[in-house]
Write a structure and sequence with these properties.
Layout: H1 2-35, H2 43-58, H3 68-83, H4 100-111, H5 116-123, H6 127-163
Helix pairs in contact: 1-2, 1-3, 1-4, 2-3, 4-6, 5-6
């Protein structure tokens, strides 16, 4: 009996490791989008993903017939939604100016390609509300991009102006000297 249980545990661990090897990168990117942390240093996103993967591993035997990626992604989104009220600070990145609910909707709808109805069911909102949140979030991102671009152009112009060498003073204009008529 113990040998059989040990063999099942080893098989389960191998299957889960294979799943993590294939899906962890994309799931970490989704978590990074949610937390709006820089990809190079994303401790909140890593904690979020670790908790979601731990729950998936705990339920691994129950997932027969279900896509473990979908289950983990849903857990990731729900963990973020339920914990986002504690982290209301403004963060950097493309999704930084968005509210947590807007980030979840955009991540699910645009990055993951989840249908509007499924997104609505997952986060507990009507599909019409998900549509409005998605449109509003996209508009906010576009406006933020326009503001960043305008600031970048102003910055580049001021750098060019500061780097330009000063003009040499021009000699005063003098009247042309005419040759005297002979």
């Amino acid at each position: 009996m113990r040998q059989r249980q040990a063999a099942m545990d080893r098989r389960r661990a191998r299957e889960f490791e294979a799943f993590v090897a294939g899906a962890a990168g994309r799931l970490l990117h989704a978590a990074t989008l949610l937390t709006a942390e820089p990809a190079s240093a994303a401790p909140r996103a890593q904690r979020l993903l670790t908790a979601a993967l731990a729950r998936t591993y705990a339920r691994w035997d129950e997932l027969r017939g279900e896509d473990p990626y979908d289950v983990t992604r849903q857990d990731l989104a729900l963990r973020y939604v339920h914990g986002a009220w504690r982290t209301r600070r403004h963060t950097e990145g493309t999704l930084g100016p968005l509210r947590p609910q807007e980030r979840v909707v955009l991540m699910l709808r645009l990055y993951e390609g989840v249908a509007e109805e499924q997104t609505a069911a997952l986060i507990g909102l009507p599909p019409e509300r998900v549509r409005v949140i998605c449109a509003r979030a996209v508009a906010r991102i576009r406006e933020a991009a326009r503001v960043r671009e305008a600031a970048r152009v102003r910055e580049a112009a001021s750098v060019r102006e500061a780097a330009r060498p000063p003009e040499a003073p021009r000699p005063p204009e003098t009247a042309p000297i005419r040759k005297a008529a002979k």
